[in-house]
Structure formats: structure tokens, C-alpha cells
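Q: How would the C-alpha cells look for this protein?
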Amino acid sequence: MRRYGKHTDEDDVRVRPGRKGSRPRTSIRPKHEDATEGFVLTVDRGRLTCLVEDRTITAMKARELGRKAVVVGDRVGIVGDLSGDKDTLARIVRVEERVSVLRRTADDDDPYERVVVANADQLAIVTALADPPPRPRLIDRCLVAAYDAGLEPLLVLTKADLASAETLLETYEPLGVRFVVTSREELVDGAAADRVRERLNGRITAFVGHSGVGKTTLVNALVPDHQRATGDVNAVTGRGRHTTTSALALPLPDGEGWVIDTPGVRSFGLNHIDPSRVIHAFPDLEPGTVECPRACSHDEKDCALDAWVAEGHADPARLFSLRRLLATRERREGD
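A: Here is the predicted structure in C-alpha cell form.
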């Protein structure tokens, strides 16, 4: 049986498309100029909750972004259904340039860095004064990560009713780190949240700390409308139990800032940190490095910082603190 008429030409012939379709591939991608700006609040198994204007929407990362990660704190461009209605799904097509990126690795031998949060400008390092006891090496590592990312550190000490904060604060006084000391009673009556909130207004603050220090309890006091699960310290190991499983950005009630609660950490690897960048957080010491030998670790025999401090340009305690922080990559948190 003849499928075509008597007068056929090549234009009449139907060509079966291949498996990949008949349209040729192109490297040109749409620019999505009409994408709406959103703010990533949390990420859960490939689904991202974003704030768009005054409503939250659920979105997924567009394939065209490739392997680029989208994390809490990112400013993104979103297209699709932005109504926020149940069972709707939008698409993140662009990640705006980040102002800051807080990173960590699982340990110092891990080559793969993990982005904790993006676009924060302050890092609240939460540690208990007892139950569990403070871990200064972990605090030092968080400070190094904060300085490397350009975040201003804030030391938040909890459970002051169980132990004094004096000794720990003396250790960090030369660094000029701001601090807030709280007790469990103050968390109940709201006094602790009020004092901490004063340090958070107008800023995006990421909260980090190991499990059991009261980090999420404090976040719940700061943002009472968004209660997250909390846990107790294990009586056998002395360690806290993980209750926060994913980072979550929450607006302060007055609308003048954000807090980002992150999962409790048992380690804070610094494999991604270039020690030469840590000196930038010490403006009183940095000019003294001009005479340092090339690739100076600032903790060796020919380091020019010793002479700089001896000449009275900086406090010796500051140099000691710098070298203590630089040594954190060679020390484990429990040491």
C-alpha cells in the first residue's frame, strides 16, 4: 500500500526523532529576567522553603544550576507558581552573589567543604559553662571559621547558674570578642532572650554550638512563635543529643533581624581554611607581617611579629591568641 501520493518531495517525509529529540542542544540558557527574588529559609531533601515577599513557598533547584548548592540564607531568583498554596512547586533558577559564606569540613582530613549558611554577618558561638562542659578548642575553631568568612563573632555562654564564666572570658578577652552570659532562670523569665536580642537586631546571625548547650532553647526564646524540638544531655556520655537536623532561618519578632539555627556539631573541621587569611582579623598585628619571610606561618623563629610586639605596636596577649587560633588545625577539639 502506497503511503504517499504520486507527487511527493522531501518536505513531505516525516522523520522519526531520535531518543534525545529532534531539537539540537544549545548552551544558551534563559536569563529569567522576570524571576522573583526569594530568601531561602530551610532545605529538606531537595525541597527548599523560601520567603517571597510576605509568604513562604516550596521550590526545587532548576537543572540548569547544575551541581551548584543552594543553602539557607541564599538570595535566589524564583519562577513558577509563587502562590504558596498547598501542593504547588516553584523553581529556583538563579543564586545571587553571596556576601559571605560560612564553611566547615567534617574533620581536618576531609577535602570536601560544606557550606553552613550564606549571607550571614554574625556568628553566635553558643557554649554551656557546665553540663556539658565548655570545649575551648571547638570555640577556637568556630572563631577561625568566622574570621575567614568575614563574620563578626559573638560568644553566648549559657547555664551560668552552674559554673562561673570568668575563666573562659579571660581566655578570649585579648581577642575582643563580644559576649553575652545567660542562666537557665533567665531563659524562663525572658531576660536572657532580651539581652541576646540586643546583639542581633538588624543582623543575620547564624547560631552554632555542640549538642546540649541550649542553642535551640535560646532560639525558641528569641522567636517564640517557631518552637523547635530540644533535647537533654546524655547522662552516660555527657554529650547532647541531636534534635535540630537542618538549618532554619527565623525572623526576629520585631522584624529587625534574622537568626539561623543550625544542627549541633561534634566537630568543626578547618581543612578549607587558609591560615594566611586569619591574620586579617587582627588589624593591630597585620602591619607587622610586612617583614615576615615568604609563606610565614606566624609561629616560627623568623616571624616578624615578635619584633613588632616587642616594639610596643601591639599587646603580647593578642599575638598569643593569634597563634593559639592558628594552631587549632593541629589540635582536635577534645585536646
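The longest strand covers residues 36-44.

The longest helix spans residues 136-149.

Upvote if useful.
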